[in-house]
Amino acid sequence: KVSVKIKSTPARRALEFIENLVSNMGLNATAVITEQDSEGATIAINGAGLGILIGRRGDVLDSLQYLATLAANMQKSGFYRVTVDVQGYREKRAETLRGVAKRMSEKVLKYNRSFALEPMNAYERRIIHAACQNIAGVTTRSIGEGADRKIVISPEKK
């Protein structure tokens, strides 16, 4: 007689949480761990009609990622980072934000005045800041608090 136990890892706990949630929502989707190391994991969810898991501008996806991170860190000291992606949404959103940064930077250079973007989470603000670093003549800064924190793109002072 052989007894086999699957070792419960933080990534496995997060994956089980997501699989249980998706199943209870009645969605036809599969979740898999695509990347994993000692500091974190990426979980991809694929299927049809999963817009409900993304929400408006990724709000639901961010909440799902937060809950998966909580599930992963329940029995662990320290912090284990979990990233959740639905049908490649995160990369598509990053490309969109890079385009916004480029267009707004061109607008700043053309009109020589500052422009503020809509409020964003820290991950999205980081993408904008990084994209604008490669554009000569503009600088970025974040203003506001909490959920109202946004980026201002300004002409670089000489």
* Helix/strand class: alpha+beta
What assembly state would you assign to the polypeptide chains in this entry? single chain
Using only C-alpha atoms, the radius of gyration works out to 19 Å
The number of helical elements comes to 5
Mean pLDDT: 91
Strand order of the biggest β-sheet? 1-2-3
Could you state the order of secondary-structure elements as H and E? Answer: HEEHHEHEHEE
Termini Cα gap:
77 Å
Q: State the low-pLDDT regions, or none.
A: none
Question: How does this model look, in words?
Answer:
The chain is α+β, with helices and mostly antiparallel strands and 158 residues long. Helix content is 43%, strand content 23%. It has five helices and six strands, in the order αββααβαβαββ. Strands 1-2-3 form a three-stranded mixed sheet. Strands 4-6-5 form a three-stranded antiparallel sheet. Strand 5 and strand 6 form a beta hairpin. Helix 1 packs across helix 3 and helix 4 packs across helix 5. The longest helix is centred in the middle third of the chain and has 23 residues. The protein is elongated and about 75 Å long. The mean pLDDT is 91.
